[in-house]
Write a structure and sequence with these properties.
Keywords: Autophagy, Lipid transport, Membrane, Transmembrane, Transmembrane helix, Transport. By secondary structure, the chain is mainly α. Helices cover 64% and strands 6% of the residues.
């Protein structure tokens, strides 16, 4: 796992370089605007609180204390920033650069470069497909909150109904290796056992 984390860490600057070759989409522009306005409001409220600590709690405007507006501004700022860190080299126009070469550099670290992307990395469809692999922090937070609600349902309702199938799969696809222990047979890329399995072949090629 540490090797994977190291490769992913090396891929982040390359990913930023590739995405910088495209102008921001509408959502990115809106998110930056919201983050800028929210940060300005936060700065004003912080400056006021430095002069008088009790102002945020005692002063109300339109039925809410200033601390409430501070909280809303903070949430809005985090939402805007969740669409990606600011890139000082970002240009509102397409930057000079070879998108194909940038993607090749990324794939050297991620070991993922579908055939459909090759020769098409300058297209927005490919960029969007690439971005789908890196969901925003807000999206991840939503899924984390949703998992708290759905996990008890899966464990108590859905999973027991699939217990037999799970046990049969484990029994059929478990391989015991000396000095290693029990592993999934798919992890051994046993093509003689499974034949020309498309997903296993793709995994073998990408991790090769």
């Amino acid at each position: 796992p540490h090797a994977l984390e190291a490769r992913m860490a090396r891929s982040y600057p390359l990913t930023t370089k590739y995405l910088a070759m495209f102008p921001d989409g509408l959502m990115g522009v809106v998110a930056r605007g919201v983050a800028f306005c929210a940060s300005s409001l936060m700065a004003v409220l912080l400056a006021i609180s430095l002069m008088e600590e009790s102002v945020l709690l005692e002063t109300t405007w339109r039925g809410h204390q200033l601390i409430w507006y501070m909280t809303v501004a903070t949430v809005a700022f985090v939402w805007g920033r969740s669409f990606g860190a600011e890139n000082p080299d970002k240009s509102p126009f397409l930057l000079d650069g070879d998108c194909e070469e940038a993607m090749l550099q990324i794939s050297a670290e991620t070991h993922y470069f579908p055939r459909a992307w090759r020769g098409q990395c300058h297209l927005y469809d490919i960029r969007d497909a690439f971005l789908a692999l890196f969901p925003t922090k807000m999206y991840l937070l939503f899924h984390e909150c949703l998992s708290v609600i759905m996990t008890p349902y899966v464990l108590c309702v859905a999973l027991p109904n699939a217990t037999r199938e799970l046990l049969l799969f484990i029994r059929a696809h478990t391989l015991v290796l000396p000095h290693v222990g029990a592993v999934c047979r798919y992890a051994e890329f046993d093509f003689e056992e499974y034949g020309p399995d498309a997903k296993m072949e793709a995994s073998f090629i990408n991790f090769k």
